[in-house]
Amino acid sequence: MKKTAIALCYAAAALFAAASLSAQTVTVEGRVFLDRDCDGLRGREERGIPSVMVSDGFTVVRTDSDGKFSIGLGPKSRFVTVYTPSGYRHTNRFFTDVRSLVSGLEPDGKSIHRGNDGFEFGLAGAPEYGRFAQMGDIEERAFDSWIDRLRDYSLTNDNDFIAIPGDICYAAGLVNMSKFINDDPMGRRVVFTIGNHDLIKGNTDFSGNPYGEKNFEDAFGPSWYAFSTGGITFIVTPMMQGDAQPSYTKEDIKNWNKALYGCIGENAPVVVFNHDANTALIPEEFSTKAFVYGHRHTQYRTVTEQGIPFFCTMSYAKGSNDHAPSALRQLFFDRDGIRSTRLKYAPLSNHLVSHIACGPEGKTELRAVVYDAAADVVRVSASFPDGTSCSLQPSGDMMWRAVLPEKPAGFYMVT
Description:
Layout: E1 18-21, E2 26-34, E3 53-55, E4 60-62, E5 68-73, E6 79-83, E7 88-90, E8 95-97, H1 99-103, E9 120-125, E10 131-134, H2 145-156, E11 161-165, H3 170-180, H4 183-186, E12 189-193, H5 214-220, E13 225-229, E14 232-236, H6 250-264, E15 269-273, E16 287-293, E17 300-303, E18 309-312, E19 327-334, E20 337-345, E21 351-358, E22 364-371, E23 380-383, E24 389-394, E25 399-404, E26 413-414
Parallel strand pairs: 2-9, 10-11, 11-12, 14-15, 15-16, 16-18
Antiparallel strand pairs: 1-2, 2-5, 3-4, 3-6, 6-8, 7-9, 10-19, 13-14, 17-18, 19-20, 21-22, 22-25, 23-24, 23-26, 24-25
């Protein structure tokens, strides 16, 4: 199939992907399309997808019946972002950087030309699993072995995405973690939220105003946006204070949430991500099903008087302030909210320790601690020198047990 390369032009050209710049305003026009061959480029027969939300972080619009959109940018717009609808994944980036358009400056002194990787966003059908993994405060500046364990977990378990709500952190950490922890090595979407240590001093925008989120946005894209999977809209919100002052304000985020609310409606279920448990940014009108955060360096769950569960999880890279071991949390959800969660402990890979013990009522028990950080343990059995065997039953996250008729003579094997 022949592909079309659509360039970014100024107001004189009527192309599908175009941007026009004047002294007062920038208008971006583009399209969201069904990428049947998943190559990130729109073919002549690849149709547009209607009613997909697109935003610059302030205004939220929906694509028309042909998948086209038009959105005006303001002086604080940083990205044009497609809010992934349920049942789809992106075949190219889900956002386009418009900072140079808004500032009136062209990157590297070159004229701005963009093809299908600019304002044409490809989507393809994707399975939905009704679960995601979350961990917070990785606070890492260079590669470490836990990243390999996280990758093994991600490739072994079918989650819709991995959420990392903030403190990645500092300038070096933002650059390096964007290389090591992203959609490609993890095999699925990775959702980053900006934390207090991800706001970096020394940055200003083109107007000379503080721009603490610049390093984060250089590495990961927009600091706030939304996406949907499994019938729930997940809202990524930014930390409002930290090591440096951000360019956005509480009013900016509140107004964006109101615009988002106007698009999704009052009964649409939402789950909110933030680095801290900051509920002030979320309109009461939202049908909020859960709040997911980090920052506190603990494994913690609570429920508000309104019945909204809050989940805090520590890092896969280190233990927490309450002496809990390093872990990530897997959350299972449907349109009614979070149904259940479980922790997956990071340090244990292919771990098996067993012993014979005296159990209740003097019975002989075979007990085994069996665990793997990447895969679920579904069956444990033991074989004995006399040719007999038995199955052990789960008793907690790691413990498996079996009652034996008598203490076995000689060696036994647990598998």
